[in-house]
Amino acid sequence: MRIQDHVEKARRIEATMTGKLDRDGDYELVLEGYMLAGTHLLNAIMYKLAVTTFVLHLMSSRRSVLEAPVETRLQPFFAAMRYIEDLRPGYLRGLKPWRTEDGKGCAEMYEKVKRFAEQVLG
C-alpha cells in the first residue's frame, strides 16, 4: 500500500467510529477501529521516514518487522498504540467490563498518533 492509501483508510475508519458508533455502546468496534486506524497511520509514518518499505507492514506496535529498535522520536507513538492494544484482550474476550475512561484514553492516544502523522506527512 502507498502512504496515501494508509492515510485514507485511517480517515475512513475514524469517520465510521465518530459518525456511526457510540464509543461506550459499541466499544468492541471502537477499540478495534482505533487499533486499525492507528496502525495504518504508523505504517504511513514509517514509509515516509523510510523506516520500512511499502512491502513491509507493521501489524502492531509489538510485532514489528523492524530489525532495529524504534527510534527515540517514534517511541511515544508506538507507546500510544500499545496503550490501545493492551486494552484489547480484556475487553474483547469479555474478561472485564468496559470503562468509559478507557474509551477516552483510546481516543486520546489515537489523536496523539494522528497529530504526529499530520506533522510527518504534511
Indicate the topology.
Blueprint: H1 3-20, H2 27-48, H3 75-92, H4 100-121
Describe this structure in words.
The protein is an all-alpha fold and 122 residues long. It has a single domain (3-121), classed as Up-down Bundle (Four Helix Bundle (Hemerythrin (Met), subunit A)), CATH 1.20.120. It is built from four helices and no strands. It has helices at residues 3-20, 27-48, 75-92, 100-121. Helix 1 (3-20) runs antiparallel to helix 2 (27-48), helix 2 (27-48) packs parallel to helix 4 (100-121) and helix 3 runs antiparallel to helix 4 (100-121). It is globular and about 40 Å long. It starts with a helix and ends with a helix.
| Whole-number tally of structural domains | 1
Give the CATH architecture.
Up-down Bundle
- Named CATH topology: Four Helix Bundle (Hemerythrin (Met), subunit A)
* Mean pLDDT over all positions: 84
Q: Report the span from N to C terminus.
A: 18 Å
Main pleated-sheet profile: none
Judged by helices, strands and strand pairing, the structural class is mainly alpha
Classify the beta-strand content into a percent band.
under 5%
Approximate helicity band: 55-70%
Low-confidence stretches: none
Order of helices and strands: HHHH
Form type: globular
